[in-house]
Amino acid sequence: MTILRYGFLLLSVMISPPLLAGEALHPLADKPLAADFNLPDMDGKRHRLADYRGKVVVLNFWATWCPPCREELPSMEKAHRLLAGEDVRIVAINVGEGADTVFTFTADYPMSYDVLLDTDSSVIRQYPVIGLPTTLIIDPRGRIVYRAVGSRDWADAGLLKTLRKLLRP
Prior knowledge:
Blueprint (H helix, E strand, L loop, with lengths): L2 H12 L11 E2 L10 E3 L5 E3 L7 E7 L4 H16 L5 E8 L3 H7 L8 E5 L15 E5 L5 E6 L7 H9 L4
Parallel strand pairs: 4-5, 5-6
Antiparallel strand pairs: 1-8, 2-3, 4-7, 7-8
């Protein structure tokens, strides 16, 4: 990432609103097809977006140094548990950091969902991300249908209802 992009991401983190409830998802009118990726998790296992086809994907871009990211992680973990057994997957893509940094971080912020590493920031550039955290909601057909910039309470009943509605054809 260039220094300008890091500065932009840092600025957006500093002005990010406090944890917001479900009403703060922004629909994308054009519903673009989400770009596929091939990223490792902390154990080196590769994951592609195509592996999640047919499911709703909550694709979260984050970093360990980002205060709003840390603020929303416990609610993502809670949402992951609440959605267990449903075709909704939470996938967190760490931007620009290595496995050791992320692994150490997870001692304080447990994440039982898929955590992938975009160490060279090549994947984030393929998506409409304007700051960290940014979360994209991808429908079962692979289209980006919502974007949330800033932290959210992902365990909020309204947000969970929105995710579950996307499972219906």
